[in-house]
Amino acid sequence: MGRYLLRRLNLFLATSLVLIAVLFITTSYFPVDKLYALTGIESPTLQQQALSRDEFKLDSNGFNQFLAYTEQRLSGNLGLSVTSHKPVIDELAQVLPASFELAIVAGLLAVLLGVPLGVLASLSKNKITQHSIMAITLTGYSIPVFWLGLTLSLWFGVELGWLPISGRINLLYEIEPITGFMLIDTLLSNSIYRMSAFIDALLHIVLPAITLAVLPFTVVVRITRAAMLHIMNEPYIRAAEARGLHTGTIVFRHALPNALIPVLKNMGLMLGTFASYAMIVEVIFSWPGVGSWLVSGIYQRDYTVIQGGVLGVALIIIFFSILIEVLHNAINPISRKEIYAAN
């Protein structure tokens, strides 16, 4: 197992270096001075120019420049934002919690609703129920996320007026950031209006979370159904039925835990797609996360924000993809056997 973890760590480092190399090469093609693209300082003084050229080794060869670029980026020096003139690393740290909060809520919705429907679709003998569930998942998988987000905003936000369609919370509430997660910070607040603020934050996250949850929800339903159909025909399930165990006991104690293993694996494989959908959702609902921040930087040609945002999002996706793979192999007996056999 130790060798396997070391290989995964090497994979993370190698992939990260390739990513940084791509960003380094891309920086040279920005239609601005390279020093400006690297630092975000529009009119640097002579001292700032000399310092930046020394930090990024601009007077040296390309390989030394790449090493210097890697060192600066990994040390947290992402430059200054061209538009706000603030450190990009600080802005990234400020918007990350909002994206994590939205992703966590959407992921929980997808799993908590998708797993029961997948189990129902696999166990139900009613053809209408099976076909209805699969039709819903196929429809949800086919709907463009931008159309869904705009439609939900129009129906529930504009016409019915039930839910807010932008932001994380009403500006009337002054909530001191503690964790960066608005749902938690409202409960931790000392304000007498904290419960009202929590409800308001909860209402704000409903529409973007539902919009973002549709794609993983459909995947969870389909993978759970396929896994349950396979597992329910396994010999140990037949043996449990022959011993007279209750169907609920067989499903929840023996079948479902094994069916969730491929669900976990497929959730890891779709992290990249999930992140790209999240960016679209954040823009539609003006959600102040990494996606809307990065898209705003692209529109404003904020080159340091573009580099910092792409680097941050990509590293997070790579890290969690490898982490999910490690967790999948840790809880899957067959994978553990293959790992130990390889070692």
From TrEMBL:
Belongs to the binding-protein-dependent transport system permease family. OppBC subfamily. Residues 96-328 form the ABC transmembrane type-1 domain. The keyword Repeat does not apply. It is found in: Cell membrane. Keywords: Cell membrane, Membrane, Transmembrane, Transmembrane helix, Transport. This is Binding-protein-dependent transport systems inner membrane component. It is a multi-pass membrane protein. The keyword Transport applies. Coiled coil: none annotated. GO terms for cellular component: plasma membrane. GO terms for molecular function: dipeptide transmembrane transporter activity. It comes from the Bacteria. The chain crosses the membrane at residues 12-30, 102-123, 135-158, 201-223, 274-299, 305-327.
